[in-house]
Amino acid sequence: MPEGSGRGSQRSPSNTAAKRPSSTSSLSGIVGRMMSSGERGASSCTSVNTVCSLSLSSSASSVSLQDAAHSSSSSSSSSSSSSSSLPYGAVPTYSVSSSSSSSTPKRNGSDISLDLTPLVTPHGGGVQGGGGACVAKATGHVAPPPAVAPPRQLSRLERVVLEIVETEQAYVRDLKSIAEDYLGCIIDYGVLPLKPEQVSSLFCNIEDIYEFNSDLLEDLERSPHAAAIAECFVERSEAFDIYTLYCMNYPNSVAVLRECMKNECLVRFFQERQTTLNHSLPLETYLLKPVQRILKYHLLLQELSKHFDKSDPGYEVIEDAIITMTAVAWYINDMKRKQEHAVRLQEIESLLVNWSGPDLSGFGELVLEGSFRVQRVKKERAFFLFDKMLLIAKKRLEHFVYSTHIFCCNLLLVETLKDPLCFKVSDQTIPKQQHIVQTKNQEEKRLWLHYLKRLIVENHPASLPQKARQVLGDNFCQSPQFDQDNLKKTSASPRLD
């Protein structure tokens, strides 16, 4: 926990709040704690009211007795100085001497001022049975309430630590809702039109993730400082691999859920579940949360590192945690990208007409794809760049008609032409087969030139010297920075190395 988070332990036992139930607490335990805390609060309020009433009653009685005694003494003195009694209902008059003007005025039953202040015992504590019991004092002013020290402001480091723990608590609650309130309910219901394999694809290994993150949350809550928080991630570096399976299956999960939404019975079931759980978002949003969370851990740890003094012990642990979770995020992203490209490859194969060669998967991963205008050709051509081959096809409605292909080991590239948006590719084994391609913008041209150069070098039969590599492209091993917003509509996501 962050520094200063244990300040509640310094309070007196009577004011200590009930312990926050963990994410796996049973409902009966939570209800029991709520009832017990409610009883303590009710008895405390009763004792305070009783003490206040008794104190006020006893004080008022003492004041009344004093006024009665004062009135009787005044009446006796006036009767002794006067020979005749006053008629019924007459108000006696009193002579005021100069000496009495400076004395405290006499009080009757209508000029009592009450000062309600806590009754303090000789030891400085409150009245037994309730804090803040009240006593009536006959004074002429009201004492100000005791000053309360303002809470200490959390440092930036403490706030980041607190954010990590609190967001993990909310995330585990969401996981519990998926595993118990949705998956558990589906299993218990038993009559829904869902096959076991559909349920498996819909929820994958969400129960394993829920159990894993519940244990992680317990360790985070017990961690006294930022370095201990980071250590929780370093210790589980390999265990986070369970997220890979879930992230890879997520597209299948979405597909199954959308198929379920075509069944009125299932639509009604999921809507009733959402209403019963008082969820503002549907199940599809909750199923995305594990994918979002695993890709956010390294960002939270980077924020933790920004506010941690590098000279303090524990900084190296935080850096190790950042490296660990960044590698996890990168690996999952890479696996997702490969899976998406494999799915896209199957789509291309199913849409490709007149291709008589082997399966496209034999030419490596799909690196880039796009549609371009080609000189001397009326309609646009579709270009598919694989690790080992450039495939060119005609577009015909939803299908691709095979036109030609160039192996990357025979690929020639000319990047500088009269038109700044054009480049030329050709097959060195067929010199007459040349294709002058016109891109839509400079960003798209830079992107294709970069990967064409790199694949030419990678597929060259001989090892090229360093100078030749530089001629083919500066720093070809490093991926350049491109404006992806301009490329989303024109090409697929490039391979990241």
3D structure, described in words:
The chain is an alpha+beta fold and 497 residues long. 49% of the residues lie in helices and 13% in strands. The protein has helices at residues 27-81, 156-189, 196-203, 206-222, 226-235, 242-260, 264-276, 283-294, 297-306, 315-351, 442-458, 466-472, 484-487, and strands at residues 114-118, 134-138, 352-353, 366-374, 381-386, 389-396, 399-407, 411-414, 422-427, 430-438. The protein has an 8-stranded mixed beta sheet. Strand 6 and strand 7 form a beta hairpin. Residues 1-138 and 474-497 have low confidence and may be disordered.
Describe this protein with a few key phrases:
disordered C terminus; 13 helices; extended; alpha+beta; 10 strands; 497 residues
- What gyration radius follows from the Cα positions, in whole Å? 41 Å
Alpha-beta content class: alpha+beta
Please give the largest β-sheet.
8 strands, mixed
The H/E string reads HEEHHHHHHHHHEEEEEEEEHHH
Instruction: Tell me the fraction of residues in β-strands, as a range.
Output: 5-15%
- List how many beta strands DSSP finds: 10
In whole angstroms, how far apart are the ends? Answer: 38 Å
Low-pLDDT stretches: 1-138, 474-497
Give the proportion of residues in helices. 40-55%
Strand adjacency order, main sheet? 3-7-6-5-4-10-9-8
Shape: extended
Concise structural overview:
The chain is of the alpha+beta class. The protein contains 13 helices and ten strands.
Q: How do the strands and helices of this protein lay out in sequence?
A:
Layout: H1 27-81, E1 114-118, E2 134-138, H2 156-189, H3 196-203, H4 206-222, H5 226-235, H6 242-260, H7 264-276, H8 283-294, H9 297-306, H10 315-351, E3 352-353, E4 366-374, E5 381-386, E6 389-396, E7 399-407, E8 411-414, E9 422-427, E10 430-438, H11 442-458, H12 466-472, H13 484-487
Parallel strand pairs: 3-7
Antiparallel strand pairs: 1-2, 4-5, 4-10, 5-6, 6-7, 8-9, 9-10
Helix pairs in contact: 2-4, 2-8, 2-9, 3-6, 5-10, 6-8, 6-10, 9-10
